[in-house]
Amino acid sequence: MRHCRTDVSNAMTTAEWFRIPYPLQWGMPIFWLRTSLVMIIVSLVATVDSVGTYHSASMRINLKPPTPGIVSRGIGLEGFCSVLAGLWGTGTGATTLIENVHTID
Fold first, then answer.
1. Residue 39 and residue 42: Cα distance in Å, rounded?
2. pLDDT the model gives residue 96
3. Please, what is the Cα angle at 38 between 67 and 87, to 5 degrees?
4. Into how many domains does the chain fold?
5. Residue 93 resides in a domain
6. I need a surface site. Which of 5, 41, 82, 97 has the fewest CB within 10 A?
7. In this structure, is residue 28 part of a structural domain?
8. What CA–CA distance (Å, rounded) separates 95 from 74?
């Protein structure tokens, strides 16, 4: 059994500083109903936020509001990227943030 020690002099040279992630590196996903319901609610909130971000960004650059098809593709792509992020074990999804719209000029 390994222990966490602070007096190891070769810790900097033996640490794994660069690693290439691969799908399911932490094992097969385990689904619990309670956490799945929480994630569904969070995903719905993120979807509403993303729709607002799409409209706000289009207004910021003086374009027409996005059509329902464009919004649908954007939400679908964010969902696909979130699934990929989960498979690679990042623990976070992909979504647009309204906080970043102010950088568009």
1. 5
2. 86
3. 75
4. 1
5. yes
6. 5
7. no
8. 10
Reduced 3-state DSSP string for the chain = CCCCCCCCCCHHHHCCCCCCCCCCCCCCCCCCHHHHHHHHHHHHHHHHHHHHHHHHHHHHCCCCCCCHHHHHHHHHHHHHHHHHHHHCCCCCCCCCCHHHHHHCC
Binned average pLDDT, 10 residues per bin, the chain of 105 residues: 64 73 82 91 92 93 94 94 84 81 82
Residue 65 is which amino acid? P
Domain membership flag for residue 27: no
Is 43 domain-assigned? no
Tokens of 68: 């329902």
Which of 96, 91, 93 lies closest to 57, judged by CA?
96
Q: What pLDDT, on a 0 to 100 scale, did the predictor assign at position 56?
A: 92
- What's the confidence (pLDDT) of residue 102? 83
From CA 86, how far away is CA 49, in angstroms rounded? 20
Domain region containing 71: 48-105
